[in-house]
Design a protein that fits this description.
alpha+beta; globular; eight-stranded mixed sheet; binds zinc ion
Length: 109
């Protein structure tokens, strides 16, 4: 069991993601983050339309509280999707949060 962190999209019932271990995470204040961007993930796996149009999120590690934070778009905050993220990123302790960075076109409008 080792926790992973990184960005993801959820498109057509598929979780498209990039993960790295906490050891390889980049520290910013009291968080560990994967330096891989949504732009890179988009270029590597998707390449249709524009990435800002699609539901997305990011798993980061909260050092102070010793748990993961799943930042997620409101439109994909659903139990079955959270459960997929939990398995993929090997999470045990986590909390779910919203952030302005992770809002698809529908959620912004
Ligand atoms: Zn949305």
């Amino acid at each position: 069991m080792s926790v992973q962190i990184g960005p993801f999209f959820y498109i057509k019932n598929k979780l498209i993601h990039n993960t790295c271990s906490l050891e390889k995470g980049r520290r910013q204040a009291d968080k560990l983050d994967n330096s891989y961007s949504h732009e890179q993930l988009w270029d590597d796996h998707i390449r249709f339309g524009e990435y800002i149009d699609y539901p997305r999120g990011r798993v980061v590690w909260d050092i102070t509280n010793n748990r993961a934070i799943i930042y997620i778009d409101r439109c994909i905050n659903k139990p079955e999707i959270i459960s997929k993220i939990k398995v993929t990123f090997e999470l045990q302790n986590y909390t779910v949060a919203y952030d302005d960075h992770y809002r698809c076109r529908n959620c912004v409008e």
